[in-house]
């Protein structure tokens, strides 16, 4: 059981427990504590079934804990309605998934614009923002391409641009290099490093040590509990 002591964390988990009823009670997280200071870059590592994805889902306000407290920017997510949690996700949290999760019938530009549609940005403003972000990730010449016309690495670049559309305080990256080759994975990690350098807080979930070492610290989890934390020194 852990308590959080960091000053003014943008994300705070305090003694969090998450259980699922799957033919019995399955404990995914067992009294875990974690704080993410604003502007930090943290990687979470652990074997399959250790609770990494559950942790990410709770921080991303996709789920609520069975016990304990999960707060994002000072707000306890358990106190929010589903609608308010959706608003939180849409404004303060950006998601990057292993499987990209792009809308297949939308172009690269339209995929990046999608969060801005929900945020009720006007057409000109969201188009300008989407094009600027696609330029930043090196896809200025692919804006009108459909996802099936892009490589895996290009799709992940679109996904990163989409995650940054609303300039979220927190970016959650779930195995972002899992479906690309090593060289492309390194390019993706370079983009995430640039995102961090611009001030975003990043939480990265991975099972690869070399990917985790791009972060400033690595939090190890096992059986739903936090084992230890490493501080990573030197260049990312």
Task: Give structural notes.
There is one protein chain. By secondary structure, the chain is α/β, with parallel strands linked by helices. The chain has a single domain, classed as Rossmann fold, CATH 3.40.50. The chain has seven helices and ten strands. It has helices at 52-59, 82-92, 108-118, 123-136, 152-163, 182-197, 209-212, and strands spanning 9-21, 25-37, 41-45, 67-72, 75-76, 93-97, 170-174, 201-205, 217-222, 225-231. It has a six-stranded mixed β-sheet, sandwiched between helices. A four-stranded antiparallel β-sheet has the order 2-1-4-5, covered by helices on one side. Strand 1 (9-21) and strand 2 form a beta hairpin. Helix 3 runs parallel beside helix 5 (152-163) and helix 4 packs across helix 5 (152-163). The longest helix has 16 residues, at 182-197. The two termini are 31 Å apart. 42% of the residues are buried.
